[in-house]
């Protein structure tokens, strides 16, 4: 996706006289707009559902002009692409229409005629009047928040009228948003999404045969919150959510590990050891757990040395033969 439009070998055979590169390319592309304003060529098929109109998408893209060797716009060089919402962050009409035709994992090439790109006037000097542009777009993932936003705006009574699967789906969407924000190091924003998911799950009652589904969803969000609060340097809150996770699954290694990390940050070394030893029992070969136990041993050793030094200073004989602290 980072190469030039000319050099990617997109055309086969001989050049047709009098036709431009994009004109020749357009002959093998699918018309998805109905007026040949947006043409599409699938390079790699995707899977699952089509992108929904109110979705936030995670994409890699490069845009090319016909007579330029390098893209005029690309996000392929970013380590982590930004989540963009259709109609807000993506304003190019052709790109939005193209994305609505895509599925997760799909890679496609598009031609956008001027009316779906930069218009009849263009945007000089980069985009001359009536410019057709080519975009290569890879849809990494998309999240549809419209359904979630609408559901969260309902009262508890209204939400309870929906089946449990609906609640679980909305909570999963909120958690996915939180996960994305977490990966972007936007921990405060991630925390808000996780808490929104947890509130939905806490409000909901499930029949006995479905209780395990609700508990599993809660457990995942509680683990996310515990980790997020560690990133926010709030170990007390991390411990609180970690212990809530242990109420659901007392042998959950991740919950035990998070609780151990939180206690270590709080200098509660004995509690940290108890949690980490329990975590190690569940996952004896975990590098992270074993590393944290080694860190705990170092911290505790330093703590003991400082305590000994303090006691020595307190009770060491002074110059007049008395002990420090004696009357």
Rg, nearest Å: 29 Å
Written as H for each helix and E for each strand, in order along the chain, the element string is HEEEEEEHEEEHHHHHHHHH
**Average pLDDT number:** 87
SS field, number of helical segments: 11
What order do the helices and strands come in, and which of them pair?
Elements (H helix, E strand, L loop, with lengths): L20 H6 L3 E2 L6 E7 L2 E4 L4 E11 L7 E2 L9 E2 L7 H7 L3 E2 L2 E6 L20 E12 H8 L3 H4 L4 H20 L3 H17 L7 H21 L3 H14 L4 H13 L3 H14 L4 H29 L12
Antiparallel strand pairs: 1-2, 2-8, 3-7, 4-5, 4-6, 4-9, 8-9
Helix pairs in contact: 3-5, 5-6, 5-7, 6-7, 7-8, 7-9, 8-9, 9-10, 10-11
Short description:
The chain is α+β, with helices and mostly antiparallel strands and 327 residues long. 47% of the residues lie in helices and 15% in strands.
Structure write-up:
With 327 residues, the chain is α+β, with helices and mostly antiparallel strands. Helix content is 47%, strand content 15%. It is built from eleven helices and nine strands. Strands 1, 2, 4, 5, 6, 8 and 9 form a seven-stranded antiparallel sheet that branches. Helix 7 packs parallel to helix 9 (253-265). The chain is elongated and about 100 Å long. Residues 4-14 have low confidence and may be disordered.
């Amino acid at each position: 996706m980072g190469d030039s439009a000319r050099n990617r070998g997109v055309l086969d055979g001989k050049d047709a006289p009098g036709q431009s590169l994009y004109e020749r390319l357009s002959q093998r592309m699918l018309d998805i707009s109905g007026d040949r304003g947006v043409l599409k060529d699938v390079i790699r098929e995707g899977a699952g559902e089509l992108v929904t109109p109110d979705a936030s998408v995670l994409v890699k893209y490069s845009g090319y002009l016909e007579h330029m060797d390098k893209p005029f716009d690309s996000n392929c060089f970013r380590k982590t692409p930004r989540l963009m919402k259709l109609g807000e962050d993506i304003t190019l009409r052709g790109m939005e229409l193209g994305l609505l035709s895509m599925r997760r994992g799909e890679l496609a090439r598009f031609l956008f005629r001027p009316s779906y790109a930069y218009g009849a006037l263009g945007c000089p000097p980069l985009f001359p009047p009536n410019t057709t542009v080519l975009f290569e777009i890879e849809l990494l993932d998309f999240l549809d928040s419209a359904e979630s936003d609408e559901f969260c705006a309902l009262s508890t009574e209204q939400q309870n009228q929906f089946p449990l699967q609906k609640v679980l789906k909305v909570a999963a969407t909120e958690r996915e948003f939180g996960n994305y924000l977490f990966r972007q190091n936007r921990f405060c924003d991630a925390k808000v999404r996780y808490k929104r998911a947890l509130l939905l799950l806490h409000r909901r009652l499930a029949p006995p045969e479905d209780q395990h589904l609700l508990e599993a969803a809660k457990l995942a969000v509680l683990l996310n919150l515990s980790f997020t609060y560690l990133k926010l340097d709030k170990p007390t809150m991390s411990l609180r959510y970690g212990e809530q996770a242990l109420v659901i699954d007392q042998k959950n290694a991740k919950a035990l590990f998070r609780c151990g990390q939180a206690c270590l940050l709080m200098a509660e070394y004995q509690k940290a050891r108890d949690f980490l030893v329990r975590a190690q029992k569940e996952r004896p070969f975990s590098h992270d757990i074993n590393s944290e136990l080694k860190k705990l041993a170092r911290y505790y050793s330093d703590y003991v040395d400082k305590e000994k030094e303090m006691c020595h200073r307190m009770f060491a004989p002074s110059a007049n033969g008395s002990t420090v602290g004696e009357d």
